[in-house]
Amino acid sequence: MNVSAIDFIDLKTQQQRILPDLERRMKEVLCHGQYIMGPEVGELEAKLAAYTGSRHAIAVASGTDALLIALMALGIGPGDEVITSPFTFIATGEMIALLGATPVFVDIDPRSYNMDPARIEAALTSRTKAILPVSLYGQCADFAAINAIAGRHGLPVIEDGCQSFGALYKGKRSCALSTIGCTSFFPSKPLGCYGDGGACFTDDDELAAMMRQVRVHGQDRRYHHPALGINGRIDTLQAAVLLAKLEVFPDEVTERGRVGARYNVLLGDSVVTPYLAPGCSSVYAQYTVQVANRAQVQKALADAGIPTAVHYPVPLHLQPVFSSLGLGRQSFPVAEAAAERVMSLPMHPYLGEPDLLRITEQVRLAVKESV
């Protein structure tokens, strides 16, 4: 059967909307020729800080670099432990391990897919140096509870907000909820550039200075390096792209909420739809449902021209790279159960009613036939 495919993420419509501003800003970069750390980077940082309500925003080369820079600024290293979630993209645990520290996983809440605060204190040891919760799928983790635990034990909290930039938690924005917030501007993110990009956020002046230093090979002035660092700078052209996209971002956040709410109505009687915690909003970086017989459902949807994805099929503790931690199956049963059932559907701010009806009709049909 010949069926037209639906885009999983539609970047073309957004590009057409912002094209005049996008072209103008990129042309300005081409004219001044400051391709690394040009004036657009400082402008972007000021606007990102203002948007989140943070004192400082440090634009960096990727969301992965944002996590690494945050950990380095806090002095995380060999022998240290960092509490984090096993149900996330590899970069979260990877950056901890890359510094010689050990990721200590804590199981997730079955409804939000975010770290379960009730499990954190049992995982703390004398070697714990930070807590790194992930705001998965576009909704912030429970930072009131997490920050309270961290405060009792004198620990910094790093938010992995790589999927939640723009979301609200009790009136405050993601990335302004903890000691350091990190986000990604990968093209498919709610706010994405046309390559890799990311940012770190903090209200702490000393941490901000250290993160800026780490971003440029640990230097505090030209050819003077008091600390080890990395090449973590964002390209000026990517900053220009993000400045153009920021103009429409608040409207896109609203539209993402609309699409997510409409999905919930249309699918609520067929699949487990995303749970939204009280006082939270989601930017639905992914619109993720739970289904039984996932492979069968995905095949039926693919045949109908509906793309799907799985974020994430293998929890971090079961990844081969972390086998040395000795954590086998059933170590984190909630994360493992979610990994077997989650499935993400097409999601973007420009998803119209006809496509939503077509997607959800096919999902209901596929789920019914898979039983």
Reading the helices and strands in chain order gives: HHEHEHEHEHEEEEEHHHEHHEH
Distance between the termini: 23 Å
CATH architecture of the largest domain: 3-Layer(aba) Sandwich
How many helices? The count is 12
Query: Mean pLDDT across all residues, rounded?
Result: 97
Structure class: alpha/beta
CATH superfamily heading of the largest domain: Type I PLP-dependent aspartate aminotransferase-like (Major domain)
DSSP E strands, number = 11
Number of structural domains: 2
Give the oligomeric state of the chains in this entry, treating copies of one chain as homo and distinct chains as hetero: single chain
Helicity range of the residues?
40-55%
Please list the strands of the largest sheet in the order they lie side by side: 1-9-8-5
Main pleated sheet: 4 strands, mixed
- Indicate the CATH topology of the largest domain: Aspartate Aminotransferase, domain 2
CATH class call of the largest domain: Alpha Beta
Q: What is the radius of gyration?
A: 21 Å
Strand-helix topology:
Blueprint: H1 11-32, H2 39-52, E1 56-60, H3 63-73, E2 81-84, H4 90-98, E3 102-105, H5 120-123, E4 128-132, H6 143-153, E5 158-160, E6 168-169, E7 172-173, E8 180-184, E9 198-202, H7 205-215, H8 236-246, H9 249-267, E10 287-290, H10 294-303, H11 333-341, E11 342-345, H12 353-370
Parallel strand pairs: 2-3, 2-4, 5-8
Antiparallel strand pairs: 1-9, 6-7, 8-9, 10-11
Helix pairs in contact: 1-8, 2-8, 3-4, 3-7, 9-12, 10-12
